[in-house]
Amino acid sequence: MADESRAIGSAGARLGADAGLVKGLGLFDATMIVMGSMIGSGIFIVSADIVHQVQSPALLLIVWLAAGVMTLIGALSYGELAAAMPHAGGQYVYLRESLGPIWGFLYGWTMLLVIQTATIAAVAIAFAKFTAVIAPWFSASAWIWKIGTFGPWKLWFGLLGPYNVGLNRQNLLAILSIVLLTWINTRGLRLGKIVQNIFTVAKTAALGALVLLGVRYSTPLAREINFHDFWRNAGLAMTHAYPPDQPTWMIGTLTLVGVAMVGSLFAMEAWNNVTFTAAEVKDPSRNLPLSLALGTGAVILLYTLANVAYLRVLPITGDAYGATALARGIEYASDGRVATAVCEVIFGLHGAVVMAAAILVSAFGCNNGLILSGARIYYAMAKDRLFFESAGKVNRHHAPGAALVVQCVWASVLCLSGTYGQLLDFLIFAVVIFYILTLAGLFLLRWKRPEMERPYRAFGYPVLPGIYLVMAVYLEIQLLRYKPQYTWPGLFIVLLGVPVYGLWKWTQKPEGNSAGG
After folding, report:
1. pTM of the model
2. Which of 494, 36, 91, 420 is nearest to 263 (CA)?
3. How many Cβ atoms from other residues are within 10 Å of residue 247's Cβ?
4. In the 8-state DSSP scheme, what is residue 18?
5. What letter would DSSP give residue 16?
6. Dist CA 292 CA 272 (whole Å)
7. If you count Cβ atoms within 10 Å of the first and of the last residue's Cβ in the chain, which end, N or C, has fewer?
8. Please, are residues 101 and 396 in contact by the beta-carbon 8 Å criterion?
9. How far is 287 from 331, CA to CA, in rounded Å?
């Protein structure tokens, strides 16, 4: 406890390290980071997998709404922490100050190994996947260097793999996009901010256009199939197969919704990334809570309306071998590209190409926000002497250059290791673990540090944060039960950080008792 007390007591001195960063983000910029980091590739892809699990128009929307409720409550609650501790690193700082340095380290460790970098890799792969619609040369089957296929391995929690590891044209493009965006962000906050704002406005407009198209050009087949029996397969219990092609069992609707929320939560993930850049936000006590509320609220509304648009144009299910997008439906949209299928139905093949181009803009802009903000975590950890010293330095453009490079290298390696879906499943369980810990930290700080200045107090406290914790814990339990092949590896990575933290602290002892005790 002495270490924790010293860490919290010396927070002011340590957080002066933010001085190397420039306050260049206003409310509009911060909101663009929230929206731009959230709107990526997920909304255009994951509905196909959700439908494959729930087989119900009503449950498809419920899955998205439930994820939206969780996300909005989380954002409103984080506003209090962000306004009280507006420093580089965001959630890393909140965990360190509420639960102690080891929890901050475990978060940063997991962000580097899985959460942030795997999200960057998954979005980059989606960028390359949609590029293949326009330029088929970028194919995942066109191998440049295939290391091999690993797995499947039968472990106590289920099968792990198989994984096709190596370099193909698709993940080569993904890696090149990460490298380019990293270079842009090493040139300073101003350039990264400009790129973020331009791409976020463009992709928000594209998503809004998709919604309007779905409303205007609905198809009789979709309306008949999806809305004639809207609540089908939404009983309190049903026979369900998961994983696909496995024996069926009776499963409760709440459980099914929880398991299916992996995709929708991933599509809404990264809303907290603006907190990582808090040291660079002007008037953070006002702009951080406002940007979190405005950004998440707008995206959740757009996502819900986008799924209504899908249901108005495409039947919820169809023939996996259908010759047209309408025949295949949402569930069997080619390569999961539901949004391009919608435009293909409305405008023909040219419409699919236009939508693919819009999604390219979306994914590219999303990754810019992820890359810009994620490096600030490793910068803050290095300032606390919990990461390599070089990562805690800014370059001549006042950007954390070394931290950006480390993030780029590992995200590029992850591009070689799996598909979009595999990366998605691995990271979401770990993400929610730290959301749970951070919201628990909100309660703990109210108790431990009532004197802390709180320019903004969490809306609906303690009821809404409590609801979030109940929903999140329930979700994690169901994922452990029904998706063990993805959740246990994520948990293992988090726990592996404990001995790494101990080893790191042991190597730092001769240096004295600076940040983190």
Report:
1. 0.86
2. 420
3. 5
4. G
5. G
6. 8
7. N
8. no
9. 40
Instruction: Return d(Cα 109, Cα 498) in angstroms, integer.
Output: 10
| Closest to 453 in 3D by CA, of 81, 90, 99 | 81
Instruction: Return the structure tokens found at 44.
Output: 């255009």
User: Could you count the other beta carbons within 10 Å of the beta carbon of residue 4?
Assistant: 18
Distance (Å, whole) CA 350 – CA 341: 11
Of 165, 139, 131, 148, give the one whose Cα is nearest residue 413. Answer: 165
d(CA 341, CA 348): 9
The single residue listed with the structure tokens 């340095």 is: 101
Helices of type H across 384-419: 401-415
Full pLDDT tens readout for the chain, 517 residues: 334 333 443 444 444 556 567 777 899 999 999 999 899 878 988 899 999 988 899 999 999 999 999 999 999 999 999 999 988 888 999 999 999 999 999 999 999 988 889 889 888 988 888 888 788 888 877 778 877 777 777 766 666 667 777 888 888 999 999 999 999 999 988 888 898 899 999 889 989 999 999 989 999 999 999 998 888 877 654 445 444 444 444 457 888 888 888 889 988 988 998 998 888 899 999 999 999 999 999 999 999 999 999 999 999 988 888 889 999 999 999 878 899 899 999 988 788 788 888 888 888 988 998 998 999 899 989 888 888 888 888 888 888 899 999 999 999 998 887 655 555 666 778 889 999 999 999 999 999 999 999 999 999 999 999 999 999 999 898 888 877 777 787 788 889 999 999 988 888 765 444 444 3
- Residues 6+ positions from 220 with CB-CB distance below 8 Å: none
SS3 166: strand
Question: Cβ distance 131 to 115 under 8 Å?
Answer: no
Query: Rounded to 5 degrees, what angle do the CA atoms 91, 97, 98 make?
Result: 90
Question: Environment class of residue 324 by beta-carbon count within 10 Å: exposed (0-12), middle (13-18) or buried (19+)?
Answer: exposed
**479-to-51, 106, 393 alpha-carbon distances in Å:** 17, 21, 39
Token digits for 426? 């691995």
Structure tokens at 195: 């790129």
